Description:
Blueprint: H1 4-36, H2 39-56, H3 63-69, H4 75-98, H5 100-107, H6 112-138, H7 142-165, H8 170-192, H9 206-273, H10 278-305, H11 307-314, H12 322-329, H13 331-348, H14 352-374, H15 377-401, H16 408-436, H17 442-461, H18 465-479
Helix pairs in contact: 1-7, 1-9, 2-6, 2-9, 3-6, 3-9, 4-6, 5-6, 6-8, 7-8, 9-10, 9-12, 9-13, 9-14, 9-15, 10-13, 10-16, 11-12, 11-17, 12-15, 13-15, 14-15, 16-17
Amino acid sequence: MKDLKQRTIRGGFARIFAQAANFSLRLISLMVLARMLGPKDFGLVGMVTAFTGVLNLFRDFGLSAASVQSATIDRDQSSTLFWINVLVGAILAAIAAAGAPAIAAFYHEPRLIGITVALSFAFLLNAIGVQHSALLQRQMRFTALAIIGIVSLAVGTGIGIVGAMLGFGYWSLVAMTVSMPLITTLGVWMSTAWLPGVPRSVKTIRPMMRFGSILTLNGLVAYAAYNFDKVLIGRFWGADAIGIYGRAYQLINIPTDNLNSAIGEVAFSALSRVQDDIVRLKSYFLKGYSLVVGMTLPITIACAIFADDLVAVLLGPKWSGAAVIFRLLAPTIAVFAIINPLGWLLNALGLVTRGLKIALAFAPTMIAGYFLGLRYGPKGVACAYSAVMILWVIPLTAWCIHGTGIELRDILLTVSRPLAAATLASSVALGVSISCGQMLPLVPRLILELTVLCIIYLGTLLLFPEQKLLYVNIFKELTAPSTTPNGS
């Protein structure tokens, strides 16, 4: 793909703009639904998703990533992968529905039976569209994927809000959750115009199945590490506690999830195409890495120092208890920005076994931290979450990049520039907030705080020649004439 650099940059920015819309929609959904529903409504759905999320890791068995990472793939292989995904989705839906009574018994909450059965349909809906989405990603048609994502989220959000207005309570959240994969699947089918054929022999896809199975196991271990906190809080502190913790957790993860989704798909596709060219691989990776970290650090700072104002504006006064949890979880935004791109690198290079080993070493320490903090409630768990993540960031980074041609000093240098800019910007913004912020109402005060933070951060960041050159080059690629027909 001769125009890989240009298509990567344009695809990345298409995804970033789409995720900006996604971010706005998710915030609107959170703000509106948080005022229409109570912590218990969110807590009931959160109890179920803590378990069904485990099954969700198996929804494509890693085969979508395997088909993108593979150097070549034909239509027969894609068709075989499609039918395997459908079979897996049907099995997962059946397992979730059958496990509904057990989930209800675990939490001592009979209402969870109906919620679990309803949410189980999402597995089959997702499975039907997995390979079509992978085909769009492999073709680097990220604009189409972006539009589909926005439409599905907008429709799902609308369904959730209307349901809450009509008094359906937690069922409005269930309807929103199930409707989004339905709309997404319809969208990717129409965009690809590809009809799967009959399944062929699995011999030709065995390498991809091995890649996918290891990737899935890795995801399972990582999911346990990052979500066992919610299981423990729901079990020992109740629906209200998990509702408050879950809203803070969701709010803190919106920027991470959006950036990871926006840049991750593009980066993985591009790095997979140049996996045999170490020089280009290193160049592409470090530029994308710099962009991710540069966009994430100011968000981390804002969440840490303006947590009370952000929660009050976004969730409303009845969620004030989530502010301290929100602040305690803020460091994880920066940590995820540092470590998530390393996963894209490992997967693109086919080093999924190393990723699994890292996850197996990391998960027990994270879960142990949850147990240590559990006695202090949601605040203790949030503190443990951030502490373990911070302690792991350097060792995990060094382990991931070993032997890839990228050195730890490359990572540290890339992080140092936005970190210096963020430190200065946060000091100035906090000073402005303390000196004159209290004289302003809540919303104008928050706007002032965030505006000062962003202006100082961006102005300082552009003082670094390397950073300025990166953004100039990106702008040139965005404005250059396309060298291939659109969508090719």
